[in-house]
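Handout, tutorial session.
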Amino acid sequence: MTKRLRTALLGAVFVGALGLTACDPSAQADTPSPAQDAITQSFGPIADQAMGVAQCESGLDPNAVSRGGGNWGLFQINTVHSSDFESVTGQPWSNVTDPYANAQFAVWLYNQSGGWGPWGCRWAA
């Protein structure tokens, strides 16, 4: 076997091995995003409803900020809730885009209001 052929074969084996691990779409599909994980952990049995609301509110983007800058994160928590956010989550308002803190606060807001009323996208639930 020539050196060139051996190098080509080793390269093909290496690329093939990478393709079976790092690029396997089925392996990646089973891993939820941090946003999905945060919603599932926080909302439990109504996570599907919450996922619909967060999808509508932020496109499941934990860093989403409304055009006017008044609503933040997965559930677009309004700045009027900043002091409640800190007392409920134990985190400063600056962490409102953390998906876990945002979802934790959204559960509290959901329970305080008796449902999806505070969200414009509550129809998605």
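The second record follows below. Compare its token runs with those of the first.
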Amino acid sequence: MKKSVILIFTTLIILVLAVGCAKAPATEKEPDNMAKTSAEEMVESPEPEMTAEPTQEPAAEMTEAPVEEMMVGMKTEAGYIDVTPEEAKNLIESTPDLVILDVSPLYADGHIPGAINHYVGDGSLDEAIKTLDKGVPYLVYCHSDSASISGSKKLVAAGFDPVYRIIGNYGAWVAAGYPVE
């Protein structure tokens, strides 16, 4: 079990580093005359000098934040928040109104305790969205990324916020040794 948790965290770190190091593609809004910095220019330019005196005002004191803001996961471009199985378990334990939503066709074969099922692939989720409470947080998972991502996007597009998605889905939850029904 420890090996799988270490493997998951190592994979996440690699993904974060890869995404952070990737260069964003140029957009049409970028002006043609924008100065490009070459690697040679970067090497030749001197580093700014460090001073002992601060140049900015001290940061304001931190206040207590809601649970969704304390999460390590950040909102994706699609508007949902990816969380690890450990973060998902903490959410379940600390958020009494959290709705756990299994969007897979394999719900009867095993699911996270307390989860409801609205399969994304047959239109069941689309119909259920009309009746679900938009005022509570949702935790979405499946047995595949494509389905959980699709389900999360559908909720966000319908105005649900916050929407969390378990990275690695049901398999990662099971691999972490968390309970299932």
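Points raised in discussion: The chain has a mean pLDDT of 75.
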